[in-house]
Design brief:
Length: 468
Amino acid sequence: MRARAVARLVAPLAAEDLRRQLVPSAGSNVGCKRAKLCCPSAPVAPIGLASGAIAVRVALTSSTRKNGLVVAAVVTASATLGTVVAATGTASALAAAKVTAAHLRPAAQEAARVANHRLPVPKDEVGGPLLARHSIVVNYPGHGAPRLPDVPASAYVIADASNGAVLAAKDAHGLFPPASTLKVLTAITMLPRLRPNADVVATKRAASVEPNIVGLISGHPYQVADLFRALLLISANDAAVALVQASGSFTKGMSLLNAEAHHLQAYDVVAKQPNGLPAPGQVVSAYDLALIARQALSMPAFMGYDSMRTAWFPVKRHEHVLLVNQNYLLTRYPGGLGGKIGWTSDAGATYIGLARRHGVTLIVTILHATPLTEITSAERLLDWGFKMSSAVRPVGVLVPPLPVARAVATRKHHARSAIGNSLSGSKATRSGRSAAIGAAVAAGLCACAIGGLAWLRRRVLLRRRPSG
């Protein structure tokens, strides 16, 4: 626009001559009256020299007039070319801006779609609003239906593993120390990341855990499979630390545990020790333990270790220790599949129980129970659940894990959009610079033309002045 305006200032200086000497050819956008360089309503491309439409006819009767007209024609053509460059640069900048906007729109729409994929709810309402209650929640089908057993525990959940239906619960999202039930989270997190036949060298940190249970020796290598057996059969605290450190470091391993809990939507979980030993702020809920247990049920490797009755553990080359599964739900409860026992003085007794009868698989989780009552309480809750699984209306649902593939695809999409936006931005910047350079060139040429034409005009006037 600046080049176009300057060009219009040049033309009137030679209007008397250009009016007659510049004759537009067919299809040209050059006007005959004022020698305008472009038509505002016409495209930029066919302007002046860009289409070869300017024809210059110079009168040969006066050398001064000839020189002036040649200069005017050349400058006018140069200004036209500058206008074309500037306009082209501007068009490129606009095109780049459109490309940038085209990249931004899908990214923004995708971000909005992902954000709206799952409405945010308070952590204590994950799975349903009834689960936020601290009291017992259950929907009995009628007055004659069997009642829930009275168990000495602060919190519990009984759920169908197949469809996720929560049959009954007590303070499902209440926060309590997990004790050794947290080892199930350690197992399902590390199982997919470690090869069973790989060796892990026990560190001083792992060997010095108290109580250590299996007795790892610092600097001694142990197979991953042996460590998982010790973890799940006898609840070995030292094995839990060794498995987490096998990820690269203790800190990295604990980050993986908490990330896995988030993936399962177990938002109540705060894991600080892989073995569940007391740690400030370390808590779980009965609901989140049920989510973790449901994931464990879907992993054949976990169930293979967890359902073992006995195994030998090589503490040293010539010293083996017999491991006997502590969870007697496996041996004395019909349909028992496995689970995990836990206890600390702060947490009390904690428990995860898994059982299957007649094609129905149930999960029971118990927190802060009276010690030595946890398995009996679980058996009573399971008995009630098998009787009522098809009769009661669920009070909530075990939510599925977050879709990892979709989350990864979304991150890749956002990364590609960011790269595209960066490239488009650089193109727009370059186009803007080209427009500025074109405008500056045109303005400079036109300024020179103004000075040259003024000098020629003065020279003509001086020649016409009578001498004497």
